[in-house]
Write a structure and sequence with these properties.
By secondary structure, the protein is α+β, with helices and mostly antiparallel strands. It contains seven helices and 15 strands.
């Protein structure tokens, strides 16, 4: 009986230790998964998956201004790897997209440790958080960027330079007052910037109606949005004769069918009895006196 008791005690101790070790391993694995916020800064960026050890294939798309989580390695640096896509080797970064899963993205298209934001007023670029570092470069209003941190009156941001085939991300500073980080406002600009003259009118109408159900706009954000819509209408939408895009301006209060004749009736003023001979021109006296 004593031997049986000792056997049971030893077995209990063994499995208890094993369970504790298993729990420690699971906890350690949980702690090892570390992420930071990231922001996509290319108009359309690829979400890739591994086809083999060193080869990536396209799986889906993600768009400029979308937020992702970037996985970190043991050194707290972004988890990256080199792999081939479309016959060329690129640097990839490991990310998680909320509701969609884990993917690999081109490292050159993601700002790490940042949140999405929109520039709400034309802004000069600074090389450091100091007024003396002012450069000649400007960022247009409604540009989507990634904000890292604030320093005094400045925000450190990452913006995208280059064309579709050559993208460079650069860290600069702009005045903090010209940045809006409110998620709802950023989403509005992301949505309207993705529209084009090729977008079906019914889809554009749906997006615009959605935008104008939001009442949280500050006057600065509203002004920036109006200006952007007007410019987009003139440069892009107006050339499409197949669709009537004026409802965009109607929604943004930029289109007025104003009848000036109703506002001011010239016929009410009768100048027929006015005797112009009674008018004395004193201009000659002015020059004589001076």
């Amino acid at each position: 009986m004593k031997k049986i008791s000792l056997f049971i005690a030893a077995a209990f101790l063994f499995f208890s230790c094993g369970s504790k070790k298993s729990a420690d391993v699971i906890q350690e694995q949980k702690e090892e998964v570390r992420t930071v916020n990231g922001v996509v800064l290319r108009e359309t960026s690829s979400l890739c998956v591994e086809k083999s050890e060193n080869e990536m294939v396209w799986a889906d798309d993600i768009f400029k201004g979308d937020a992702v989580l970037v996985y970190l390695n043991k050194e707290n640096s972004p988890e990256t790897k080199k792999a081939v896509a479309y016959g060329t080797e690129y640097d990839f970064i490991h990310c998680n997209v909320k509701g969609r899963g884990d993917y690999w993205m081109y490292s050159s298209q993601v700002a790490v440790d940042a949140v999405p934001a929109v520039v709400i007023a034309e802004s000069y670029v600074y090389d450091s958080p100091d007024v003396s570092s002012l450069s000649s470069k400007k960022i247009d209003a409604t540009e989507i960027c990634a904000v890292h941190s604030d320093s005094g009156d400045f925000s450190k941001i990452t913006i995208r330079y280059g064309d579709k085939d050559s993208v460079t991300l650069k860290d600069v500073y702009i005045k903090k007052s010209n940045i809006d980080k409110v998620d709802a406002n950023v989403e509005v600009f992301k949505a309207i910037k993705r529209l084009s003259a090729k977008t079906p009118a019914v889809v554009v109408k749906e997006v615009v109606d959605y935008i104008f159900t939001k009442k949280e706009f500050t006057s600065e954000v509203e002004d920036a949005f109006y200006a952007f819509v007007a410019k987009k209408y003139e440069e892009e939408f107006a050339v499409d004769e197949k669709n009537d895009w004026t409802f965009i301006l109607d929604a943004a209060d930029l289109y007025y069918d104003y009848d000036y004749e109703d506002d001011y009736d010239y016929e009410d003023d009768d100048y027929s009895d006015y005797d112009y001979d009674d008018y004395e021109d004193s201009s000659d006296d002015y020059y004589d006196d001076n």
